[in-house]
Amino acid sequence: MFIQTESTPNPATLKFLPGQAVLEVGTADFPTPDAAGGSPLATRLFAIDGVAGVFFGTDFVTITKADTVDWDHIKPALLGAIMEHFQSGQSVMAADHQATSGHAAHDGEDGEIVNQIKELLDSRVRPAVAQDGGDITFHGFDRGVVYLHMQGACAGCPSSTLTLKMGIENLLRHYIPEVTEVRPVA
């Protein structure tokens, strides 16, 4: 088994490509070790000193390190843990894991606008940010402001504000005149 690694725009995050499916559909975000209980692979990765976050896409694993750790020191252990996991035949997620679109539900009078926002995110934005090892999902819409949740390499990335304002905000405002602003949520 050969695992490729790619840098991301976030220097604290690396993207690992194991060459096989990680998740069948959707994504899974584990921002803390406590959140990793639903995934044997995430639990294994958090056991390595210096791992600050784990994120799964359909064909990649994104790992965020603590500022106090060097990639040169933990990368071999991470590669080993990923390889051991996939060779063990164990599943990436616990059996009770339910795949979701990642978008928050929205009830209310702006339903049609929210559906348009989600469609644009799914077709234009999410595939692009997945290339960088992250994901951006809809969190809410209120009086023209779209709230988005950034995960994986996108969370804490130095260029994420520029991506939100110059890229996603301009895209949404172009196609949906009701959108006036885009803001991140934690």
Structure, briefly:
The chain is of the alpha+beta class.
What does this structure look like?
This protein is of the alpha+beta class and 186 residues long. The protein is 33% helix and 24% strand. The protein has a five-stranded antiparallel beta sheet, covered by helices on one side. Strands 6-7-8 form a three-stranded mixed beta sheet. Strand 6 (134-142) and strand 7 form a beta hairpin. The protein starts with a strand and ends with a strand.
What is the percentage of strand-forming residues? Answer: 15-25%
- Order the strands across the largest sheet as they lie in space: 1-2-5-4-3
Q: What is the end-to-end distance? A: 36 Å
Major beta sheet summary: 5 strands, antiparallel
Search tags:
alpha+beta; 186 residues; five-stranded antiparallel beta sheet
List the helices and strands and how they pair.
Elements: E1 4-7, E2 13-17, E3 28-30, H1 40-46, E4 51-56, E5 61-65, H2 71-88, H3 111-131, E6 134-142, E7 145-152, H4 160-175, E8 181-185
Parallel strand pairs: 7-8
Antiparallel strand pairs: 1-2, 2-5, 3-4, 4-5, 6-7
Helix pairs in contact: 1-2
